[in-house]
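Can't paste images in this forum, so I'm doing it all in text. The chain is below; anyone willing to post the predicted structure tokens underneath?
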Amino acid sequence: MLIIYALPIGLLLGYVLRGRLATLASLRMRHMWLIPIALVIQLVIFLPFGRGLSVPASLFMALHLASYGLILVFLGVNLRQPPVGVIVLGALFNLLVISANSGHMPSSATALTRAGETEIVERLLTDGTFGNIVLMGTETSLNPLGDVLYLPAAIPLATAFSLGDALVAVGLVWLIARGMVADV
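Text version of the structure:
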């Protein structure tokens, strides 16, 4: 959800820096077709609203990691754009923690509650997982890289998020703003 805020913030920053949307449209990113494939994979295993398709745990993890692999290939071929390096770092943090937790992101009950996501906390307490997240605890690994940060509940679409998510969002803001002010 944090990425939803990155888009308008990047556009606003681009305009503040006297950039143009037409300049952003000329941003040269290779292999864009990998992103929709990765998103479709994630939609298949996570939707609707956290239920997704019933797939065996090993297939779930393989599909989730495959979606990250596609995204990382896309990012790798576009590293000539400096902001992409920040996005790669965030994606690698997320991939690391998700890989260590059987394809799920550990999420702090406290961060989710403070973000107003009490229904998700209740679901995690009863089911253990919800979509791509698992309740953070002593049995989850790399918890500091999990969803421990949050947007307060008063902010629309508030949620818990990870350091990796924050880095991806910062990199995306930078990429959009940079793409609006320079022909890169």
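The mean pLDDT is 90. The beta strands are 105-107, 129-130, 133-135, 149-150, 160-161.
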